[in-house]
Amino acid sequence: MRISALLFLLFLMLCFTALCLGAIHIAPADVAGAVSGAIFGNASGTSEEELILFSVRLPRILFAGIVGASLSLGGVVFQALLRNPLADPYVLGISGGSALGAIVGIVVGAASFYLGVPFLAFCGALATVFLVFIVAGGSRGVLLDNSLLLAGVVVNAFFSAAILFALSVVNSMELHSISFWLMGDLSRASLKEIFGTALWPLLFHSPVLSVSSVSWFRT
Question: How distant, in Å, are the alpha carbons of 39, 84, 93, 118, 121 from that of 159?
């Protein structure tokens, strides 16, 4: 409990620091005044600093927090279901498949459609799950304890090579978009994106954790 409180305090400190730093530096006292004014209803919302804080930086911070929480939830679920503390979407190659799907979406122009690139990234991740299962021998009914992890490492290596190849053949504009996406682009963060992204963890948080907890305690 004490560790959780310390981590939450550290998270708040990092959020406050992120509100201060950027292309335009805002003094901590001004940030504290703007935040307190927004909480107690005294903010004007028209100054340049308040527009930067509440229209640009705060949505990105909230968006990053939700994405990070979703990734951590995914890691916990994989560790519980596979009964292995080393399991996570990166080791299993799922993140690589998702990245490759997003790259394909950017190249074919799916970014012009709403949720086009995220949808293809999801399809890539889902296809990777089945691919890892097949490579691990699950289709033949001979799935061993660590075979999924080993198959995931192999699949992840293949996807990493495919991503490097894609980065070497795309044009400069596509390379810029792909690089930003792979690093975690938060430039389009908005209230609509935040609510849409937060909806899925809220819907699946309790049932997924329940299933994974049952699987963990059965070991």
Answer: 46, 23, 8, 17, 13
